[in-house]
Amino acid sequence: MARVYNFSAGPSCIFEEVLEEASSQMLEYGDSGMSVMEMSHRSDHFEEIINRCESSLKSLMMIPDNYEVLFLQGGASLQFCMIPMNLLYKGSADVIHTGIWTEKAIKELNRLGKAEVIASSEDKTFTYIPKIDESMINDTADYLYICQNNTIFGTRYAELPITKGKPLVADLSSCILSEPVDVSKYGIIFAGAQKNMGIAGLTTVIIRKDLIEDRKNIPSMLSYKVMADNKSMYNTPPTYAIYICDLVLNHITRKIGGLAEMEKKNREKADILYTYLDSSSLFKNPVNKEDRSLMNVTFVTGDENTDKDFIVKAEEEGFVNLKGHRLVGGMRASIYNAMSLEGVKSLVSFMSEYERNK
Amino acid sequence: MARVYNFSAGPSCIFEEVLEEASSQMLEYGDSGMSVMEMSHRSDHFEEIINRCESSLKSLMMIPDNYEVLFLQGGASLQFCMIPMNLLYKGSADVIHTGIWTEKAIKELNRLGKAEVIASSEDKTFTYIPKIDESMINDTADYLYICQNNTIFGTRYAELPITKGKPLVADLSSCILSEPVDVSKYGIIFAGAQKNMGIAGLTTVIIRKDLIEDRKNIPSMLSYKVMADNKSMYNTPPTYAIYICDLVLNHITRKIGGLAEMEKKNREKADILYTYLDSSSLFKNPVNKEDRSLMNVTFVTGDENTDKDFIVKAEEEGFVNLKGHRLVGGMRASIYNAMSLEGVKSLVSFMSEYERNK
Fold first, then answer.
1. Do both A136 and A217 map to the same domain?
2. Per the CB < 8 Å rule, is A1 touching B33?
């Protein structure tokens, strides 16, 4: 038995060193005499973990002082309702529609107010990021909403849209920590942890402090104000997921050397894969070149049976979870931070060989 | 370094065998070639885990077929708003008020409708469970709400209240799996996992199917209907927490021998501790005898400095997290399923010795 190359879109591969550390600390963490799983969230040991996790994230992402970091539950999907509950005043938000995840956000937004879709790439099966100009932004919008990296369709914003002074609310679930971002350009950044931050069950929200208001009649658990006032400990937080996130952040800081280095590695991996795809006569990537995701690389052969055969044969060789999302078909290689350069090179070798033998 | 006796109220001690199994499977689970942390929630391996977890729970608790089991996020605290959002029609619920956790539930209920407090033990600092009769139940109430075991004050319902046909909604966070319960008597049972089911970040809801309705304008993530229709996979569930829960359920089933055996062990532990407390001239348990919790045993010396001294000395001997909740003071020994008989006996020995030397 050996570890496979796991190209899952999420939950997804984790740095092996992180897993090894978690395993070795499973029965006793430091001098605590217990597992992190068993620790009271109010204990000194856990306080140290959550505080270190927060300060590592602040330092890695260079988060300015006027932002709050929250560790929440419920995934990005719970943010789809928390955001409008907390941020809608006039009642509507502008949305750039780029795939399934903005579609879900729009649906929840429309339950609590109104989503104004100011641009969409649905006309070309979401294979590009639409451009917007100032004239498209509604004066009445409370914020502008985007999904920065689209896991399913393999697109990403190479540049952020203009916002005309509106707070930019962005879903970074599948690209957070993959490269440096200028946090000061956002009102809210949010991300589920199960791609680049650790395990499912933790959601990180980075919110500009002036957007945190005491909204009346919002359930406590859905109020950014309550969560911020209680430093993410209004109730028991997902302690073990926060611990794994802390290990991941520590790994990126100390072993990788920060987000600029992380980006370099990610660009190298993506370049190798896209360069091969662009030269292949069997596999094609359908995404507009300048909008290609560094994290999720989609490809098709144009023939369903060949796609199926490729996926089966790849799995036999230890390249797993290459099947594309059921709504898109084809293949997808998610090459998050924890996917090694060696993993991508091996995949490309395998694909070349498959192509030669076809 | 050695493992301590951890009397934390939650997150709390976990069966050592479960931790050992999790540690040994951390890098590779079965023939998957990956950690459970890295598995897609849509993968065959994870589907097997969540299905086994559900069927083990159904079999252990003898959950009738007309109940749905949901694995959610957000802790019991998120249930405080989900329950009224999904169950209020006429607009109010009857509540028996027995401490901080019903207080929090009442607060959230009053944001979305009205909580009618039909009985309360606040007059005696929540040291007993108030009795109710049929005349106290409001015809207009949509359901009757209780907290079955009160972690902070150390009380529990030895018998369920009459409900006059209303659905009984019960918070079993700190007593689920500690003894058999007759699920058919409840409308909803819910519990955070971090006491008897594993780790923080997972909340189990057992709901009678006729209570699951398609409520309009509820956010998807807060709808029991959406969660039930998607078999707890509307979005990525807390996969690793579900895996740990599965290991815990397996341990209770195979190593302990089921909930009747679990109850026997829990009663033995509680008896030893209460018998000592009732005979002690230094320590006192303030709870009405018939309402004493089997899981959370509170005690005081009546002198704050002695309490403090005891807690410090106990910690030096490896008995940790004995400090009572900040709202109650004194001490509390939480003796959940995973606390061994040996742990309780050792604590009582230590307390006796402390008393002799006083």
1. yes
2. yes
pLDDT tens string B120-162:
999 999 999 999 999 999 999 999 999 999 999 999 999 999 9
Residues B322, B350 contacting (CB under 8 angstroms) = no
pTM over 0.95: yes
* ipTM (interface pTM): 0.98
Cβ of B8 and A202 within 8 Å?
Answer: no
In this structure, what are the phi and psi dihedrals at residue B281, rounded to the nearest 5 degrees? -100, -5
Q: pLDDT confidence of B1, banded at 50, 70, 90?
A: low
Query: Mutating which of B107, B221, B242 best tests the A interface, going by the most A Cβ atoms within 10 A?
Result: B221
Residue of B nearest to A83 (CA): B219
pLDDT in tens, A239-273: 999 999 999 999 999 999 999 999 999 999 999 99
Alpha-carbon gap, residue B291 to B154, rounded angstroms = 8
Q: Which helix (H) or strand (E) holds A343?
A: helix A341-357
Say yes or no for a CB contact (<8 Å) between B8 and A77: no
Task: Please list, in sequence order, all residues whose beta carbon lies within 8 angstroms of the beta carbon of residue A240, skipping any fewer than 6 positions away.
Answer: A36, A37, A199, B199, B200, B201, B240, B241
> What's at B46, amino acid-wise?
F
User: What does the alpha-carbon distance between residue B151 and residue A40 come to, in Å, rounded to a whole number?
Assistant: 14
Domain end residue (candidates: B255, B279, B309) = B255
Task: Tell me the residue range of the domain where A34 lies.
Answer: 17-255
Closest approach of A219 to chain B, Cα-based (Å): 6
